[in-house]
Amino acid sequence: MFFERPKSGEKAILVHIDFGDESKAESPQELEELALSAGADPVEFLIGSRAKPSSKFFIGTGKLAELIELVVLHEAEIVIFNHSLSPSQERNLEQQIKCRVLDRTGLILDIFAQRARTHEGKLQVELAQLDHMSTRLVRGWTHLERQKGGIGLRGPGETQLETDRRLLRARMKNIVKRLDRVRRQRDQGRRARQRAEVPTVSLVGYTNAGKSTLFNRLTESSVYVADQLFATLDPTLRKIQLADVGPAILADTVGFIRHLPHKLVEAFRATLQETSEADLLLHVIDCYDDERGGHIEQVKHVLQEIGASEVPVLEVYNKIDMLDGQEARIDRDDEGRPWRVWVSAVTGEGSELLYQAVSERLSDDIFHQTLSLPASAGQLRAQLYALNAVLRESVDASGQMQVEVRLQKKDLLRLLSRLGIPSESYLMQAVS
């Protein structure tokens, strides 16, 4: 039997089984938040424990009987498992309980499908959905006979299932080609920013940690914000101005989640590349969340999976307005560098401190020295003034100009190279 894809608002039975392995455990509360974000109406939560999943039904026969009673009692239209189910387990469960069964991966894919707004986001979600669906087609077409026959077409023919699998593979191949074009366009924009040497700061964090609210606060934008999981799906870029650094790009990205389906990581790799190639990551953490320790570890795991584990990180502890007596502040490491900032994106408390911390972290490579320039270095002096890099200058007894400059070291090196001046002499001055 085949059941149609559910629409929003169905009565849902949520199922969570504890297998005793904390490293692979999911959060029952998070399942409920996911279901609500998808538009479901959870009416019952079935919780149990087992040593390991049943190969046929995932749950035991006793829990299955209990689940069937709950479905009948509440006239539920969908059962959502807080786990990944195999296609055969989904099919066997549906045949027994006579309603649609959805696993955790399918639920997250459904939420992503609702949230996607841009052309690229919709393509990425569709690719992940088709990949997930490809192993689950059999439940819909097992009743159909082979389709082809007749004069000139005799032979084994092709079942409707085989036809659909072929069409699905063709559609996936087409989407991959279109995504490649979108990725090339995104790469061009990224390379243009790199040529202009505009640093990129990317917001990352667990879903619903307040990234978009903080993004709006820092950029004075109006990105969509909601108290639900995966409210933001498509990446948003805005320019900001930082002291000592100048213009920078701030990127708001999709939130991470515990055991983020690998299909989604693969599909969104181009979007997440904004994160992996950023100059600084702002790891936004909900300091009011009791599960923040596990969420921090999960974000680190996803960053490693997308190749962003080596990017410098500044932790942003958000929602201090929900903690009694917590004030905005900057925590520094043994070298005096900011490594954590306490803020409230809702009230704006700590925003200036965050700007200051980001500027300090991006200006680690700032060249701030007094250079001795001979009278013949007038062109270099003029260019330093053009870059607004001169803080003050004076002339010493020997007639040399003592010019105090502050600018990024890469800008100084590029200037010296353009003027054909060996960089070693001035950098050695700084060392001495």
From TrEMBL:
<dbReference type="InterPro" id="IPR032305">
    <property type="entry name" value="GTP-bd_M"/>
</dbReference>
<dbReference type="Pfam" id="PF19275">
    <property type="entry name" value="HflX_C"/>
</dbReference>
<dbReference type="InterPro" id="IPR042108">
    <property type="entry name" value="GTPase_HflX_N_sf"/>
</dbReference>
<dbReference type="InterPro" id="IPR006073">
    <property type="entry name" value="GTP-bd"/>
</dbReference>
<feature type="binding site">
    <location>
        <position position="232"/>
    </location>
    <ligand>
        <name>Mg(2+)</name>
    </ligand>
</feature>
<dbReference type="GO" id="GO:0005525">
    <property type="term" value="F:GTP binding"/>
</dbReference>
<keyword id="KW-0479">Metal-binding</keyword>
<feature type="binding site">
    <location>
        <begin position="205"/>
        <end position="212"/>
    </location>
    <ligand>
        <name>GTP</name>
    </ligand>
</feature>
<feature type="binding site">
    <location>
        <begin position="230"/>
        <end position="234"/>
    </location>
    <ligand>
        <name>GTP</name>
    </ligand>
</feature>
<keyword id="KW-0963">Cytoplasm</keyword>
<comment type="similarity">
    <text>Belongs to the TRAFAC class OBG-HflX-like GTPase superfamily. HflX GTPase family.</text>
</comment>
<dbReference type="InterPro" id="IPR030394">
    <property type="entry name" value="G_HFLX_dom"/>
</dbReference>
<dbReference type="Pfam" id="PF01926">
    <property type="entry name" value="MMR_HSR1"/>
</dbReference>
<dbReference type="InterPro" id="IPR025121">
    <property type="entry name" value="GTPase_HflX_N"/>
</dbReference>
<feature type="domain" description="Hflx-type G">
    <location>
        <begin position="199"/>
        <end position="366"/>
    </location>
</feature>
<dbReference type="GO" id="GO:0003924">
    <property type="term" value="F:GTPase activity"/>
</dbReference>
<dbReference type="GO" id="GO:0005737">
    <property type="term" value="C:cytoplasm"/>
</dbReference>
<keyword id="KW-0342">GTP-binding</keyword>
<comment type="subunit">
    <text>Monomer. Associates with the 50S ribosomal subunit.</text>
</comment>
<keyword id="KW-0547">Nucleotide-binding</keyword>
<dbReference type="GO" id="GO:0043022">
    <property type="term" value="F:ribosome binding"/>
</dbReference>
<dbReference type="Pfam" id="PF16360">
    <property type="entry name" value="GTP-bdg_M"/>
</dbReference>
<keyword id="KW-0460">Magnesium</keyword>
<dbReference type="InterPro" id="IPR027417">
    <property type="entry name" value="P-loop_NTPase"/>
</dbReference>
<feature type="binding site">
    <location>
        <begin position="318"/>
        <end position="321"/>
    </location>
    <ligand>
        <name>GTP</name>
    </ligand>
</feature>
<feature type="binding site">
    <location>
        <position position="212"/>
    </location>
    <ligand>
        <name>Mg(2+)</name>
    </ligand>
</feature>
<protein>
    <recommendedName>
        <fullName>GTPase HflX</fullName>
    </recommendedName>
</protein>
<dbReference type="Pfam" id="PF13167">
    <property type="entry name" value="GTP-bdg_N"/>
</dbReference>
<dbReference type="InterPro" id="IPR045498">
    <property type="entry name" value="HflX_C"/>
</dbReference>
<dbReference type="InterPro" id="IPR016496">
    <property type="entry name" value="GTPase_HflX"/>
</dbReference>
<feature type="binding site">
    <location>
        <begin position="252"/>
        <end position="255"/>
    </location>
    <ligand>
        <name>GTP</name>
    </ligand>
</feature>
<dbReference type="GO" id="GO:0046872">
    <property type="term" value="F:metal ion binding"/>
</dbReference>
<comment type="function">
    <text>GTPase that associates with the 50S ribosomal subunit and may have a role during protein synthesis or ribosome biogenesis.</text>
</comment>
